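Figure 2 data, in text form.
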Amino acid sequence: MWQLWHDGRRCIVCCILLRSGAGKLTCYIPKCGYEILQTAVPEAMCVVAGDDHILTARGIEKFDAIGIGPGIGVQETHIALLKNIFSNYTKPLLVDADALNTLVLDTTLLASIPPRSILTPHPKEFDRLFGKTGNDFERLQLALQKSKAYTIYIVLKGHYTFISTPEGRGFFNSTGNPGMATAGSGDVLSGIITGLLASGYTALQACLLGTYLHGFAGDLATARFSEEAIVAGDITDFLGDSFKALH
């Protein structure tokens, strides 16, 4: 398992990966984030790949799953980094956060994303990447079109998260609540889906199960703390109970 990293703001992603199926987690990080990550998540392996931001991605072919984006920042050099990753990794990977924002800098990269990879934008990230639409329905239609055009899954995050598939099918997630619209909640979802990919689930299975577990954990956290009071870490804390409920 491999996760691109920038600094300690996204330690929650590493925690959730280790709690959602990734038996071993390796983080490619810049030197400035090494002590933060090793202190916050000592179970994670670290590869220093730059001083202030990530510059290289050597050896990625050996990993079972890749999640890239949360916390990496937006740098011009990340265009070449993503190009290198997409050309050297053939299995589905997850692209989120600043990796999505990097795609906005060079949208030609979309055509080189490994088939059946997963993009997890919130509506504003989706609009920046694919263009604005007149209403929510048009945005969903555009998601379906782009999934078919690039052979990717798009997890469009929202109160009822929408998943579009390369086959032109769409799914709405039934779990979750407005209290989950809090900083870091989307990073938790990315960690869950990537962890499920590392466990051997297909991309579609990881999208469907990941969004359900994420929302269900958020519902459990809300029942405990209220919609107003939950934070992303609370969702992580209730992930185990979500798995147990399914079992």
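Caption note: Residues 1-9 have pLDDT under 50 and may be disordered.
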